[in-house]
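> Could you send the Methyltransferase domain-containing protein prediction when you get a chance?

Sure thing. Input:
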Amino acid sequence: MFSPEGPTLRELAVQALSSVERGYDLLAPKFDHTPYRTPDRVLDAVASGLAPLGPFGRGLDLCCGTGAGVGVLARLCRDGVTGADFSAGMLSAARAHPVPAGPEVTWVRADARALPFGPVFDLVVSFGAFGHFLPRELPGLFGQVRSVLRPGGRFAFPVGAPPRPGSPAYWTLLGFDAAMRVRNALWRPPFVMYYRTFRLGDVGRELARAGFRTDLYALPGFGSRPDGSPRARLVVARRLP
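Output:
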């Protein structure tokens, strides 16, 4: 799963016993050499899915990590791109990467639950961060996203279809979440990272309550499930007036 440049087992254990913020500060220098970094094929699929809806003015990569999603926004936005994350270590790693061609890129340390922006963005994207938010936090999170979007602005993110019950992937994710719950029951500070709490039906309802109209687009490069449904979708939520 990890390249030779990635973290050691000991480093991962130290991260897992830290807070979310501290854990990512520690992991940041080697994060891009782990499976946790969003794959390029996902980034490219999202960029292709959003391209017909653009071009956009200003873009925000929410919970940007080391900045992989900023490259998507640089292809789609004309007036500027911002990456926001609450981990200083991840932002430091992001700043060390070559700046994508296109509009100016800025980096801001910020908690997604209390964003320090006005309604200045036309597109907000996020990749792989929602497992760090408990279901009860989604209304506040989506409210924050709405507050930084201009009317008609869009909030977009990819979601994968849940694994088939009984499959190896199903048991792997179930076991990970169970282990994380035990860890958080026994150890402080908590490390919030769950794979099975971000359910598309619940997400759609919370987006509607927050003032979004949501459309789903298949990401065809990931194929279909046996029932014909897509293995991956792009959620595009438009901010209503």
